[in-house]
Amino acid sequence: MHLFSVVIGIALLFTTLLDAFQTIILPRRATGRFGLTSLFYFVTWTPWAYVTNRIRDPRTRETCLSFYGPLSLILLLVVWASAMVIGFALLFHGLGSPFHDSVVPRGFRSDLYVSGTTLFTLGLGDVTPTSRWVREFIILEAGIGLGFLAVVMGYFPVLYGAFSRREVAIAMLDARAGSPPTVAELMRRHSYDGASEALMKLLEEWERWSAELLESHISYPLLCYFRSQHNNQSWLSALTSILDTCALLIAGVQGHESRQAQLTFAMARHALVDLSQVFSLPPAKNYPDRLPPERYDQLYALLCESGVSVCRDDRSMQRLAEMRSLYEGYAVALSRYLSMPLPPWISDTPRRDNWLTVARLRAQAENEDKDSQAKAPSFHLHDDHDF
């Protein structure tokens, strides 16, 4: 018996099964920084992002980045399966390779073949064990392989269900805040009569969305690598724009929606900070100011033009800066790591979207209705009838 091979095989099996359990089944953040999954994403994502970010064309670059999430999921399953095959092969090798193989001589190559056919439950029967202990280990490996396949089959629907729920809200934000979403556009599109209630409802929905994001992406961090359908959208930009909006409402906008903004801000920031900690990312320290004084003045002018009641006192900009300091460092750190750009406060090059087209047509309809009412003849009724 080769004791060293047995110990290494058992250790590899234990590490792999524990890592798969923490990644798939355990509904909370996995403990430890040196798990097999963490090592896999560290080794694969860094070179993938480095090479992809050298692509000049934005569409091609974003397409290549979007391949990583689904592809990494498949490769991770391959890594787990390969580790278990090698682990049992080492265990068999440590027990002296007690197999009768008529094709190749007895050794580690034969052990790998037996381990692979057993884990994937092929059951060819061309290699037979000659030891009672090995027969029991083969039964154990076959059971683990069957359970592994069953768990994997249930793993994909859970992941893609969480991804789909995340993307629905991001797609709906396009009509409410533009694409990419910005604070100026969101506030402008909620400047009509009665918009305060609509804005409060929107913030309530994004408070729940942030809680669902926290729960699903802490349990399955690889979802953070899954990118949105459109190049100018991402879960990080949507979350950051909601935090920007809440910070503005709390620091410098008059209205009852500031109470809901505080609740949404707390939950959204919680999700942002915890996801940064999952990837062991400290908040960024030195980064360009997303809202310098001149941009703040421009934002203030746009809000005033839209009819938003903005608090323009001496400390309004300072209060907003204090609010931004609570989350922007974490947002920048995730943006740099995941190669997801953060949204601006004001869009310099607004893109055409469905909301602008519909709003323009509606404005034309209202103007034509006013013109038709002004041109319509008026009739006066008199009470002096002769009978």
Low-confidence stretches: 378-387
Q: Helical proportion?
A: 55-70%
- Quaternary structure state of the chains depicted: single chain
Q: How many H/I helices?
A: 13
Helix and strand content put the structural class at mainly alpha
Give me the Rg, rounded.
30 Å
Distance between the termini: 126 Å
Q: What gross morphology would you assign?
A: elongated
- The spatial strand order of the largest sheet comes to 1-2
Number of domains: 2
Order of helices and strands: HHHEHEHHHHHHHHH
Using brief descriptors, characterize the structure shown.
387 residues; mainly alpha; 2 domains; two-stranded antiparallel ribbon; 13 helices; 2 strands; 68% helix; disordered C terminus
Itemize the secondary structure elements and their pairings.
Layout: H1 3-25, H2 36-52, H3 58-94, E1 99-101, H4 108-119, E2 127-129, H5 132-177, H6 183-188, H7 195-219, H8 235-252, H9 257-278, H10 293-305, H11 316-325, H12 328-338, H13 354-375
Antiparallel strand pairs: 1-2
Helix pairs in contact: 1-3, 2-3, 3-4, 3-5, 7-9, 8-9, 8-11, 9-12
